[in-house]
Amino acid sequence: AYVFTHQRTHAELISVVAADENKCFGVTFGTPVENSNGAPHVLEHSVLCGSRKYPIKEPFVELMKSSQQTFLNAMTFPDRTVYPVASCNLQDFYNLIDVYLDAVLHPRAATDPMVHAQEGWHYSTTDGKDELDFKGVVFNEMKGVYSSHEAFHHYQTREALFPNTAHRFDSGGHPLEIPDLTFEYLQQFYRKHYHPANGRFWFYGDDPVDKRLEVVNDFLVDFQEGQRTEIIDAQPL
């Protein structure tokens, strides 16, 4: 295994060579939160809703239908957001990387408030009534999560254990706080945390190492030096 640092942006790339045809790639961004409005979770959904190079509504859905991928997903954790892909076909693998890197580094969501409304939250009427209600992909998902007693107690326990750190908040978003998330806040969160310097890129498998560096560098040339932002203080005892 090797760890490379990009000279201009200071982004890190972890390269693991293995005799495994199931080639894997991912990028992880540190995304600690300061509230429970669900910004990292909404971004996780939103960046996969079109990008500079792929200006269609849902490239992720198209990949699920046409790619030979063996894994394709994105996950929000309490302090980081992860975008992994995998494929046994080399050209398909490079296609997946191209779509994902363009998605996280040049998303339509960074400039289009309609993506935030669709994936985060928006006002809606129910059954033609005048009364307004909240809707949205992440909002509806987290309503379902918080309908579980186990999930509710999990978040309450974490808040009690880590009262002085970012882990006391719900990075997925609390249904009562998600409507506080504005498009401007989402833009600010994206600019702060989705710089390559705050990401870790990684490869695993039998694909050529030199090509790994070339593929990532082709995207990083658009960026200048940045800083990591994901450091979280330990909870005082």
> How would the global form be characterised?
globular
Helix content: 25-40%
Average of per-residue pLDDT values = 93
How would you sum up the major sheet?
A: 7 strands, mixed
Q: Which value, in Å, is the CA radius of gyration? A: 19 Å
Based on secondary structure, the structural category is alpha+beta
Low-confidence stretches: none
Oligomerization: single chain
Topology as a string of helices (H) and strands (E): EEEHHEEEHHEEHHHEH
What is the end-to-end distance? 37 Å
The percentage of residues in β strands lies in 15-25%
DSSP summary: helix tally: 8
State the total count of DSSP E strands: 9
Describe this structure in words.
This protein has helices at residues 39-46, 59-66, 90-105, 113-119, 137-146, 149-161, 183-193, 209-220; strands at 2-5, 12-17, 23-30, 69-72, 75-76, 80-87, 122-125, 132-135, 199-205. Strands 1, 2, 3, 4, 5, 6 and 9 form a seven-stranded mixed beta sheet that branches. The protein has a two-stranded antiparallel sheet with strand order 7-8. A hairpin with a 6-residue loop joins strand 1 and strand 2 (12-17). 36% of the residues lie in helices and 20% in strands. It has eight helices and nine strands. With 237 residues, it is of the alpha+beta class. It is globular, with a radius of gyration of 19 Å.
